[in-house]
Design brief:
single chain, TIM Barrel, eight-stranded parallel barrel, 9 helices
Length: 392
């Protein structure tokens, strides 16, 4: 019987060691896949100076208060969008800073430190716009452009590293350039040599599936301005149906690329019909177009209700929070959720815990299956030994 007791003790010890090992394996596996960086669900918000383009907007007392209010509604990650850098037009290759509009280095240092002081993590997200008003996704391919863009983005990658940003975005919606895979791989490699946190690229909603270099990044970033209906004022259920179809496709895409997905931007105007083409910021400029706080609110609710428990989704960055703490309000038709019902929707959902951890289930099931196999084998040995022990 002493021998049987020894086998039983060995079985218990084996169970403890295997379960402990596999409890920690998922995180280790995720860290290894991203060069030692860890993944977390990002209750995010985009922060930009488009409504107040002055060099010191990010370092103002107003900005400090606006960030404080952002944190109060449960935001844990802030994407600091660096704007005020331009290209002359889609055919040119020049990239230059407008010193009257772009934030100073001191202002950027200040806003990153302020976010960290509020216990928020930072994604630095530099963006260039075209001076002729066209969309950056129309920029023409050229070797000079890639050279200039490399110099531009490396400058900010080094800055992000110096300021301890947790995440870096290597580009945003440069749709016409992303087919040049070797050039983008080179840019990503150069960023990694300068910045040691997680990195992503913010692809437009109609661009992400054609990109072939997601494996070089840590996250798939999607600016998720998916159309949700063909009419004004659809119900939440109608929009949830649209999101179900989108979510099904994104789940299959996630399994294909094996990279966690974040919505690097998602947002809606508080304007009638915004759900039909969420990226169309000019909708609010149409004469006679009504302010519609309810449609904006319903769009937020439909997205949260459909997406919150999806295992492939690692975060949402709502477009966008302004440096003025009193921005938005009932007479505002722009994207900001500030001081509107949509702000309350964010506060509600961000107050909830997010339990879904992609990949962990796969590793855990595999690990516990191995535990079960080992234990079954040991029980078999124990039973065999028991039968061989002489009775009486």
């Amino acid at each position: 019987m002493a021998e049987l007791r020894s086998i039983f003790k060995a079985m218990l010890l084996t169970h403890f060691l295997l379960v402990t090992m596999f409890a920690f394996l998922p995180q280790a596996s995720v860290e290894e896949a991203s060069g030692g960086n860890t993944f977390a669900f990002q209750k995010g918000m985009s922060y930009a100076t488009y409504a107040n383009m002055t060099p010191d907007a990010f370092s103002s007392a107003e900005s400090a208060e606006s960030l404080r209010r952002m944190r109060q509604i449960g935001v844990e990650w802030v994407a600091i969008n660096v704007v005020g850098w331009y290209q002359t037009n889609a055919d040119s290759a020049d990239i230059h800073k407008n010193p009257k509009l772009a934030p100073t280095d001191e202002a950027l240092i200040h806003v990153i430190q302020r976010a960290h002081d509020l216990d928020m993590k930072v994604m630095l997200k530099p963006m260039i716009d075209l001076e002729d008003g066209r969309w950056r996704g129309e920029i023409r391919l050229s070797e000079p452009w890639f050279q200039n863009y490399s110099n531009y983005i490396y400058l900010f990658a080094e800055f992000a590293q110096e300021q301890n940003a947790e995440m870096f975005c290597v580009g945003t919606e440069y749709k016409s350039t992303t087919s040049w895979t070797p050039q983008w791989k080179g840019i990503i490699s150069g960023v990694r040599s300068r910045f040691h946190g997680n990195i992503t690229y913010a692809a437009s909603w109609d661009e992400f599936s054609s990109i072939s270099w997601w494996n070089d990044l840590d996250y798939v970033g999607i600016d998720a301005y998916f159309p949700l209906s063909s009419g004004n004022d659809p119900s939440i259920d109608e929009m949830k149906t649209a999101w179900e179809n989108i979510a099904s496709y994104l789940e299959s895409f996630y399994k294909k690329v094996e990279k966690p997905i974040i919505f690097s931007e998602i947002g809606y105007l508080s304007t009638d019909g915004t759900n039909k083409d969420p990226s169309n910021y000019r909708l609010q400029e149409i004469p006679g177009r009504l302010i519609d706080l309810q449609e904006q609110c319903d769009c937020y609710e439909a997205a949260f209700q459909t997406l919150w428990d999806r295992a492939w989704l690692y975060g949402l960055y709502w477009w966008y929070w302004q440096t003025n703490p009193n921005a938005g309000g009932s007479n505002n038709s722009d994207y900001t959720p500030q001081n509107k019902p949509a702000q309350g929707i964010i506060a509600h959902w961000y107050s909830l815990n997010y339990y879904s951890v992609p990949n962990r289930a796969d590793y855990t099931v595999w690990g516990l299956s191995l535990v079960a196999v080992v234990e079954t084998a040991m029980i078999g040995v124990l039973w065999k030994r028991r039968k061989s022990v002489p009775k009486g």
